[in-house]
């Protein structure tokens, strides 16, 4: 079934769904919201420790709990958060802590010693922090006084300040082996209150004491239902298009949309005898009608991607030409890879059990079947799924990178030595040419030359296909009309919760 036909079925089932939902909403007794603002999540955070936060939800919540030395502006350029910096030499940076954000929520003051302890911990191999790979260029760290921290590098890196985005933790608690995952202590705009269950997290805004509750509701249909009944105030993320249209017709909720930078892709285990064949991965790229999927299934809430970095990034590659939909070429490539009717290409495709992700996976499964590829879709709860991906237990999977700002993602995800736990090269991609381009780009002080090298690298990755790029997803927010002040960010972060308010109708 093509995506267009699938969309036709979706519209019919959508009308049935609306009737059922109306009965549930109007037949039930709506609950009045408490003083807390309740934010719906599609998946629970995996960790509240910023040294280990690699999934989207954990990363976004850690931004609320902790502050980092550096953040980024809307043009992906590093800007000060906790500290300003000076480059004394190509191998020596000094960061000066400012006056803002220097009070941990346990009352202690954030100093240079805390910054040093945080990064020393990440750099220690025995702790297996996934951030260690991108920081391996640090030779040593010194904190000569409470307000200054010095970083000494092994080799020049003009982009170094932008790598210092890990939330800072109290040095004393690090030394004591404190469990920041279950009892976070940071200096961010919110403090931890409780995490009584995996799907129920409570924070509190420090500025005004407003409680923010994160409630995990994996099914977007149920999230909408809970919002209409007053059990949720707002949520951000995927939502079927028939629900968006229905909500807009009813007028009981507001739907906001903004262009995003979240990069969604298909990943592969390149050591696998089936998907490790480049011709088969190329066949997959040609088999997917991304344009139709974006239009009819995603309601236009995405744009086709050919590389990790968005085209407007300073190191982006806007001129790359990707793989247009060509099922005939895909079928020829399947045969070229050594598969036929007697020996079909078969493998498993892992995804999360989020209903929207499962829906996309079944569409991809249908597209691949039409060109002679038999895919077994297997969906898991987020923790199990993500654990399998990090451990390399997959043939093909789909995931999204969120919050990409720095081109260091290429070393983290594609450098041959960045296999877990030293990075996120989970598919074991190994290319001497890719390694050379990464190393040369990192050693080049001229940003224009760096951008040229990263564009060549992205062209190589598009050819080798350790990932099949899919799209950059828009950010969608659904809120009750009484909720105001939430701003969608390009990277999909939850910073809008810092200012969101409930107003009287």
Structure characterization notes:
The chain has 505 residues and is α+β, with helices and mostly antiparallel strands. The chain has three domains: 3-45 and 187-259 and 475-502, D-Maltodextrin-Binding Protein, domain 2 (3-Layer(aba) Sandwich); 67-175, Alpha-Beta Complex (Dipeptide-binding Protein, domain 1), CATH 3.90.76; 260-473, Roll (Dipeptide-binding Protein, domain 3). It has helices spanning 3-27, 56-65, 112-123, 171-175, 220-228, 241-250, 278-287, 290-297, 327-336, 355-369, 382-391, 409-414, 432-443, 447-464, and strands at residues 37-41, 70-72, 78-80, 83-89, 92-97, 138-145, 148-153, 190-197, 200-205, 211-216, 234-236, 253-268, 302-304, 345-352, 373-380, 396-401, 467-480, 483-484, 501-502. Strands 1, 8, 9, 10, 11, 12, 13, 14, 15, 16 and 17 form an eleven-stranded mixed beta sheet that branches. A four-stranded antiparallel beta sheet has the order 4-5-7-6, covered by helices on one side. The protein has a two-stranded antiparallel ribbon with strand order 2-3. Helix 1 runs parallel beside helix 8 (290-297), helix 7 (278-287) packs antiparallel against helix 9 (327-336) and helix 13 runs antiparallel to helix 14. The protein is globular, with a radius of gyration of 23 Å. It starts with a helix and ends with a strand. The model is unreliable at 1-20 and 22-33 (pLDDT under 50).
């Amino acid at each position: 079934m093509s995506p267009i036909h699938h969309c036709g079925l979706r519209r019919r089932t959508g009308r049935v769904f609306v009737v059922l939902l109306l009965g549930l909403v109007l037949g039930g007794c709506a609950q009045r919201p408490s003083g807390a603002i309740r934010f719906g999540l599609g998946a629970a955070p995996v960790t509240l420790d910023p040294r280990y936060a690699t999934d989207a939800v954990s990363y976004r919540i850690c931004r609320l709990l902790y502050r980092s030395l550096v953040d980024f502006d809307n043009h992906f350029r590093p800007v000060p958060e906790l500290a300003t910096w000076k480059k004394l030499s190509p191998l020596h940076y000094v960061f000066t802590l400012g006056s803002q954000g220097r009070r941990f929520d346990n009352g202690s003051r954030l100093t240079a010693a805390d910054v040093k302890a945080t990064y020393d911990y990440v750099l220690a191999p025995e702790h297996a922090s996934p951030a260690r790979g991108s920081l391996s260029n640090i030779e040593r760290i010194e904190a000569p006084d409470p307000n200054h921290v010095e970083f000494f590098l092994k080799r020049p890196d003009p982009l170094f300040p932008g790598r210092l985005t890990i939330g800072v933790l109290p040095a004393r608690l690090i030394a004591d082996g404190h469990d920041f995952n279950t009892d976070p202590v940071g200096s961010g705009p919110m403090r931890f209150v409780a995490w009584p269950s995996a799907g129920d997290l409570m924070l509190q805004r420090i500025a005004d004491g407003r409680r923010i509750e994160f409630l995990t509701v994996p099914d977007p249909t149920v999230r909408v239902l809970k919002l209409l009944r007053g059990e949720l105030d707002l949520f951000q993320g995927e939502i079927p298009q028939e629900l968006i249209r229905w909500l807009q017709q009813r007028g009981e909720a507001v739907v906001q949309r903004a262009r995003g930078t979240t990069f969604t892709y298909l990943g592969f285990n390149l050591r696998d005898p089936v998907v490790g064949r480049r011709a088969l991965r190329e066949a997959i790229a040609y088999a997917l009608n991304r344009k139709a999927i974006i239009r009819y299934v995603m309601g236009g809430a995405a744009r086709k991607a050919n590389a990790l970095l968005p085209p407007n990034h300073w190191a982006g590659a806007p001129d790359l030409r990707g793989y247009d939909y060509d099922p005939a070429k895909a079928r020829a490539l399947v045969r070229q890879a050594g598969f036929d009717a007697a020996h079909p290409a078969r493998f498993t495709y892992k995804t999360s059990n989020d209903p929207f992700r499962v829906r996309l996976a079944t569409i991809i499964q249908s597209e691949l079947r039409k060109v002679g590829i038999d895919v077994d879709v297997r969906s898991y709860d987020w923790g199990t799924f993500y654990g399998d991906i990090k451990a390399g237990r997959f043939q093909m999977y789909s995931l999204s990178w969120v919050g990409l700002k720095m081109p260091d993602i290429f070393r983290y995800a594609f450098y041959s030595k960045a296999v877990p736990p030293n990075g996120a090269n989970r598919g074991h991609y190994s290319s001497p040419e890719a390694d050379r381009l990464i190393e040369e780009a990192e050693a080049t002080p001229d940003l224009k030359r760096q951008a040229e090298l990263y564009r060549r690298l992205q062209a190589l990755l598009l050819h080798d296909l350790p990932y099949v790029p899919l799209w950059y997803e828009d950010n969608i927010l659904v809120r009750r009309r009484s909720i105001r002040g939430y701003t969608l960010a390009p990277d999909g972060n939850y910073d809008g919760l810092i200012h969101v308010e409930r107003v009287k109708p």
